[in-house]
Write a structure and sequence with these properties.
This protein has three helices and nine strands, in the order H-E-E-E-E-E-H-E-E-E-E-H. By secondary structure, it is mainly β. It has a single domain, classed as Porin (Beta Barrel). It has an eight-stranded antiparallel beta barrel. A hairpin with a 5-residue loop joins strand 8 and strand 9. Helix 1 packs antiparallel against helix 3. The longest helix is centred in the N-terminal third of the chain and has 9 residues. It starts with a helix and ends with a helix. 23% of the residues are buried.
Length: 213
């Protein structure tokens, strides 16, 4: 009977001891895209940029008493204008550092796999011949999160997405008549508004087992 006393004490106070957390969130956003050979922040606001909008569902895992969350999910992104458009499903894998209490500052990054489908409109002929269904890339993000009720949060997040693998290959002709090629990639700037719900998980099973033995 005595060996169960520590277990009872532990279970009584375990409501305040959390070893890990899960967070689920949904977001929608709007931004700017440009498609070229290299990333340049000013091109997001240039005449050659196009709009993007979409949304996503995400989950995050906090492995301990830290401000670091491991994140993943799925995001839909439509890029285009009145001339042409591209549909994309994107699976990111990354991390967020979220220092703070009531108001948290978010900074993070990671990698993603993008699936490009249903291109429509007046599209570059080289794109039609050489585009790839899948792209691999990276992203960085920053923003703010506000805890407004119990485990509920609202957040505003700015993200920059950049393809690392080619979207398609563009062919061109030099002045001397010879042909060349250049690799074209997509770069996205998105501003996202979302809500998240934090689910604290009590790590009682493992510690209870240790106390019993």
């Amino acid at each position: 009977m005595r060996r169960f006393i520590p277990v009872f004490i532990f279970l009584s106070i375990s409501g305040h001891l959390y070893a890990q957390n899960f967070e689920f969130s949904g977001e929608f956003g709007y931004g700017s895209t440009y498609i070229n050979t290299n990333i340049s922040f000013k091109d997001f606001f240039g005449h050659s940029s196009i709009n993007n909008f979409g949304g996503g569902i995400y989950f995050a895992y906090n492995p301990g008493k830290t401000c670091i969350f491991l994140t993943s999910g799925i995001k839909y992104l439509l890029k285009g204008d009145n001339t042409y458009s591209f549909n994309n499903f994107r699976i990111p894998l990354g991390f967020h550092a979220e220092p703070g209490r009531k108001v948290k500052y978010i900074i993070g990054g990671g990698v993603y796999l993008n699936y490009l489908f249903l291109p429509k409109g007046d599209i570059n002929p080289d794109f039609k011949k050489t585009f790839r269904d899948f792209q691999f890339g990276g992203f960085v993000d920053t923003g703010l999160k506000y805890n407004f009720f119990s485990c509920w949060n609202i957040f505003l997040l700015a993200q920059v997405w950049f393809d690392l693998s080619p979207m398609y290959t563009n062919e061109f002709i030099f002045h001397d008549g010879t042909h060349g090629t250049e690799v074209i990639r997509s770069y996205d700037l998105t501003l996202n508004l979302g809500f998240s719900y934090l689910i604290p998980v009590r790590d009682t099973d493992r510690l209870s087992s240790c106390l019993l033995h």
